[in-house]
Amino acid sequence: KFNQVVIWDKIILRGDSAVLHYHGMNTKYYFFDDGLGLKGNKNVSLYLSWNVIPNAGILPLISQENKFYFDFPEEYTVNRAGFDY
């Protein structure tokens, strides 16, 4: 079984600085574990991929070779609204 989610995106225009420096930023897309399938999951990976939008032709998907592997916690923290998921 394979699940995938986008947790962040950014459009970088030609001529913009392609070096990104983001520390302590909030997520653009909030995601939650509606089926409780992530809590305590020991098989989670995070990787970077991007598209280069051409003027014409196919849309290539480029992925970083390295992945960051981690475990989800056994218990979730309480969010700002005070609800525990």
TrEMBL record:
Localisation per UniProt entry: Endoplasmic reticulum membrane
GO cellular component terms, A-Z: signal peptidase complex
Keywords: Endoplasmic reticulum, Membrane, Signal-anchor, Transmembrane, Transmembrane helix
Entry-linked InterPro entries: SPC3
GO BP of this protein: protein targeting to ER; signal peptide processing
Membrane-protein topology: Single-pass type II membrane protein
Tree of life domain: Eukaryota
Keyword DNA-binding: no
Keyword Signal: no
Membership in a protein family: Belongs to the SPCS3 family.
Function: Essential component of the signal peptidase complex (SPC) which catalyzes the cleavage of N-terminal signal sequences from nascent proteins as they are translocated into the lumen of the endoplasmic reticulum. Essential for the SPC catalytic activity, possibly by stabilizing and positioning the active center of the complex close to the lumenal surface.
Official protein name in the record: Signal peptidase complex subunit 3
Organism: Pocillopora damicornis (Cauliflower coral)
The organism's taxonomic lineage, starting at the top: Eukaryota, Metazoa, Cnidaria, Anthozoa, Hexacorallia
